[in-house]
Structure formats: structure tokens, C-alpha cells
Records
---
Amino acid sequence: MTVQSYQLKRTAGRWSLLCLLTVFLFGSCSEEELRKESVITVDQNSYTEFDYWLQRNYVAAYNIRFKYRFEDIESDMNYYTVPSKYEDAVKLAHLVKYMCLEAYDEVGGIDFTRAYFPKLIFTIGEWEYRNNGTYILGQAEGGRKILLSGTNYLNRYLKNAEELNEYYLKTIHHEFTHIMNQTKDYSADFQLITGTSYVADKWSEVPFDQGYLQRGFISAYAQHSDKEDFAEMLSMFVCNSEQRWERWMNEAGADGARLITAKLDIVKSYMQNAFNIDLEQLRSSLQRRQKEVVEGRISLTDLSL
């Protein structure tokens, strides 16, 4: 099974807090209190209002399951995490629908979305923290599943477009790009543009955590590999305004901007030729929808059918 992940660098303060919480929680349990069975139990026959909404807006519309109840079989046992809060999962489901599914419907048609979007979205409440100073925002697995983490932090970022992009929207489009790449591969010419400059897991370390634009990468994480570079190029382009992109190109300088533009041309051609998706139109749709969400003009809690 192929697994692609998207990560962010973690602050020392956040890591220290996580360690303290872990020590406290495990230190407060005796052997007698530990049980073999899960303490998270859900009556699967008891449908909530949200479940009925998901049935109509995800299953019936796209044949996609949006899992917000915690299931250990869907999670990675290498990380400490928590279930998504009901209220936050409701908002995230609306965001994915409005900012991804319906944006692709608008530009590529609903048949495209139904055919290529993965059939399972699984959410967890916490980020997946790694021991190298990064944490995982999402993963795409085998063309069938997207994991979205950090659901319980969503309310912090809903009114800030850049943060909403960084932690959620870009992640969704980044992971969907991996799914499309697993379905139809992109040109080998892409990895040749900066082929000797990929640094794998060192992307978050000095000196690679700075100056990446000048080296021809749209983000620090893009330096990981050509697959992550491709997904970063697409997601960063569609999730950010034309004005912000131009600022990045100015900061990149002539050489860096030339390399990034060469990659973007391949990404645009790939989407047009493989899926008949105009990336400029997709960005316009997303920018309009993002503005509506941040300004509070789109309800993220309406569960009416």
C-alpha cells in the first residue's frame, strides 16, 4: 500500500506540552484500570443528524464515506491521537465538500469528482507528531483513503485565510493530488528540473528550512521528493491568490522563479491533459469559495436535508 504524508515543522513548545500530557495521562493509570477492550464505544445503529447529512451529501452524492467516529483500524498505532469532536467534524465535512468536492465539480464536472476522489475520508482530532520536529497534517493511502488530522483545532483558523490554507485546505488538495498521481502518473520531466536538490526528511532542518524559494521550491516540504514537490506545487497554486504567488516569485529571484514556473507549467499540462482540469479556473473557484468561508457567508453547521 502506498502512503503519502504531508507534514509541518513542530515548535518546541508544542512538543514539550505533548510530552507533559503524555506523562500525566499514563502516570494517572494503574495496571488494574487498564483494559484490553477499547474505551471508545459507539452504537453504530444510532444515527445522528450529522450521519443523515453525510449519507445524502457524501454517500449518495459521491459514494464517499466521511468517518468522524474513531476507529483504531483506520488510525496509525505509532501516534498518540484522539477522536474528532462532533462539532468540529461537522465543520470539516462542510469545508471538504465546499472547498474541494464542489470546486472540482464546478471546474471538471461531478463525474470527475465521483470517479477520482477517494472513497474514504477519516478524521482524527489531534495532529500526528513525529520525533523529527514535524507533524503530519494528512495522508493519502493507496488511492482510496485520505486521513485528515487536527480536526479539533479547526475553530482557531476559520477566520484566517492563510492559516486555514496551511492546516486544512492545502492539505486536502495536496493529498488529492497524490491520489490523482497514483491514478495517472505525471511526466518524468518534472523531477529533472530540480532532481539533484531533493533532501528527503532533511527538508525541515538547517539549511533547507530557509531559502527554498531561491532553490526552486514553492515550500520547504517540496524539497522532500518529486512526488511531494508536485503535490505542493498544485495545492499551493490553487489555494493562494495570484498576488501572493507573485510575491513568492519576486522573493525567489530570477533563477528560483524560472525553476518554479517550469514545474508549474508541467503541473498545469498534466491536469489539463490527464483530467481536463484548467488549474487557473480551479484557483479562481477556490479563491472565491475561500473568501466566502472566511467572511462567514457559508454555513458550516447547517445539517438540514
---
Amino acid sequence: MPAGRPALIALTALAPVSWGTTYAVTTEFLPPDRPLFTGLTRALPAGLLLLALARVLPRGAWWWKAAVLGALNIGAFFPLLFLSAYRLPGGTAAAVGSVGPLCVVGLSALLLGQRPTARSVLAGVVAAFGVSLVVLKAAGALDALGVLAALASTASMSAGTVLTKRWGRPEGVGPLALTGWQLAAGGLLIAPLALLAEGAPPALDAQAVGGYLYLALANTALAYWLWFRGIGRLSATQVTFLGPLSPLTAAVVGWAALGEALTPVQLAGMALAFGATAAGQLGPRARAAGPLGPFSSPFSSPTRKGRKDSMDLTGPALRR
């Protein structure tokens, strides 16, 4: 592995680790039953902040490219994520979302010309199995719409990750601006949905304001910048194999901060998922993609406040 690459991987990994804290923040600090409003407050303020810092707007074809990436990575991903989280039993949506690495492997072969290796496919299968052991619990019949939403959210984020790698970024445009474009576009897409489905914003106390500030700044603006920065320097497959760190972080936070128990089976699943994540970083170094410099689960889906079923990680495991 080239010098400096472990540090780059570690910084990129901070994004899904941050997304893994969303469940605890949402259940402990935020108003209940406002998933779209939460998605909006995560995306739009963060996007506007980054745009103000970067002071660069899209030009030419990048207006529609930024809109497409914003829709895939944020605008479509969040609502689909929330829909699956509210319609599926605890952990099921997370288990469905853990097939993200396999989706990216397939899309990378189709759009980037990166031939899948047996190691990457095997690592993807092991990662999905490990995450399933951590988050999946016995449940009744699955809701078909919830399963479709979970699959669609995974496909949306996977496509966004691969297209971000394929298109790179315009010459002279930094990762800060590119991240801001996507967050702002995604937030603008969510805004009318939130207004139509949930009505006026809820009343917020100091605790909720603090929670939303954390989600907008650390959990979204900083985390997505690190994520998209990583996409520019690592292969799409390497980046997406960091995704399982989100549900694993949620499990650790639930155990350490919310008093949730970890069973031996869940610990074994963690070990498998961590091992698969490490194996996913051992692929060959990605070639430079044109002007692409430094630049994908929620990605966390809030669940209802007060739901503290043991290891009910539906929300955070759906990351980004």
C-alpha cells in the first residue's frame, strides 16, 4: 500500500463512523417522527455552508451532473432510507443495505471498466453476512415496499459513488465545492417532500438545536467532504467497503452509551465485517481519473424517538 494511503483510508473511514452515531443522536436529542425534516436540516444547511466557503458554482454540464449526484447521494437516498427504516423491522434495512459493496463492484465493472476480483466479491459477501449477524433480529413477515425502498436506497448511493468517481470534478474546483453542490442539490430536492409530508417544522428546544447542529456540521458537512474526498483518491470499491463501519459504530455506541447488549453472535459478526472491510482496502491502487483530486448506507436514517429495542440499528446502519 503506497505511503500515505493508510492515513487517507483512516480519514475517509471517519465518515461512516460519524454516520453510525446518527441513531443515538436522533433518538436522544431530536423530535420524533420527522425523518424528512431531519434529512433536510442535515443536507441543505451543510450544502449552503460549504458553498459559502468554496464560493464556486457549477458551470456548463456540471449543473446537471451536480443535480444528478445530489439526487443519488442525498436527495433520493435519504427519503428511500427513511421509508425503509419505518417499514422494516429492526436491523432488516441495515442488512439489505450492507450489499452496497457488491452493488459498487458491479457498477464499477459497468461504468469504470474495473473488473471485479474474486477477493472483492468474497469480501462483499462476508461484509454483508457480518453486518447481518450484528443487526438482524428475528421478525415477522417483511414489508415488500420497505424491502424495495432499502434496495433502492442502496442502489442510489452505490450509483452516486461510482458516478462521482467516473465524472471526477471540473478543473480548478476543489472537493469542498463539489460536496457543497451535491448537498445543496439534495437538500433542495428533499425540501418540498418534507413540507408536503410533514408540514411546518417542529418546535425545537436547545437539545434539539444542538443535535441538528451536530448532524449538519460534523455528521454531514465534514463527513460527506471526507467521503467524497476519499472517492477521488481511492477506488470506488475501496471506499464503499468502508460503509459497514457505520452499522458497526452504531452497535458500539448503542452498547457504550445506550446500555444495549452485544451477544457473542454479534461480536462474531463484527469481527467478520471488520475483516471484510480491511480486505476491501487491499485492492490495486486506482488510476487517476482525469482532474479528479480528493473527493457512499446515510447516510443515517432516524428512527422514532424512544425506540430502544436491543440493537435496533435500522437507522444508522443505513448510513450516509
---
Amino acid sequence: MSRIGKKPIEIPQGVNVEVKQDVIAVKGPKGELKSSFPGSINISVADGKIHVLRSSDSKADRAFHGLTRSLVSNMVGGVSQGYKRVLEIIGIGYRAQSKGGKLGFTLGYSHAIEFELPPGVTAVVDEKQTTITLNAIDKQLLGQVAANIRKLRSPDAYKGKGVRFSGERIKLKAGKTGKK
């Protein structure tokens, strides 16, 4: 049995969960999320907990058991508390600006970069314009947006300049040594 899949999910105060056929809808104070799940997985709501069960012991069902439980848990956490990712911009002249639903970047290229934020993701840029805080209720969407922003200018292996996740450690390479 899946260790993750068999753990029940606690439903926080103010969160409503509805299961209809192969779709689960989670509604909370931060918003609403819907997701479909495989037909071989059964989701039941009882006593303020969500239980995820599988119908057989096939390899595919065992794999989907833990995955479905994790996705439902992320949905419950997102609508109740939300998620955030922090990105840091390191480099002289590198900065970001928030313009409504867009982010404007100056990352050492010959042109400025505009990044359109998808619906459901908000961004806050600090006054130094070097830290971006992304907020969303969908954990998967938030992670993908953060990865796409990081990809605009990945950290350099020699100087460490670029966009990185907060707390990410970059191992710098040694540069060339001069001739003696």
C-alpha cells in the first residue's frame, strides 16, 4: 500500500470539498480549484477528512494512488493558505518591475523582457527591484511560472549572475588562470 496514498487529508475550517464522478472541486477562502482523477481511484469525504483509495493493486493504480492524494492535498492547502515562491535577481543593472499583470525585466540583454503572468498568479516586486514574490493557490502553476521566469536568465556558472530561487545555492566554477 502507498504510504502517502493511505494518509487521510484533514479538511481545514472554511474549506468545502465536492466529489462528482471523476472530478473533485475544492472551494475555500482563497478561491476554488477543480481537478480530474483516474477512474480506478476513489475519493471519499467523511468526518472532516478526505480518503483516497484504489480499486486494485496494479502498478498503474499504485502509482496514481499517491499522486492523486498529493494533488488533492495541494489543492486543499492552496485554497486555504495559498503558496508563494520567492525569486532573487543578482547582477549589476539586473532588475524587475511590476506593471499590472506583467513583469518587466532588465537582465543584461540588448532589450527589455516583458513576462505576462497567467490568471491566478500575482507578483510583488520589492523596492530594490531585485526580489520577486509570486503568490497563487495552484502549486503546479506557481512552480511552472517561477521556472519560466528563472529560465529568462539562468544563474551564470562563473559569476552567479541571473535569476535564482530564494535559498538556491550555485556552485561557481573557477575561471581561467593567467600564464606565468
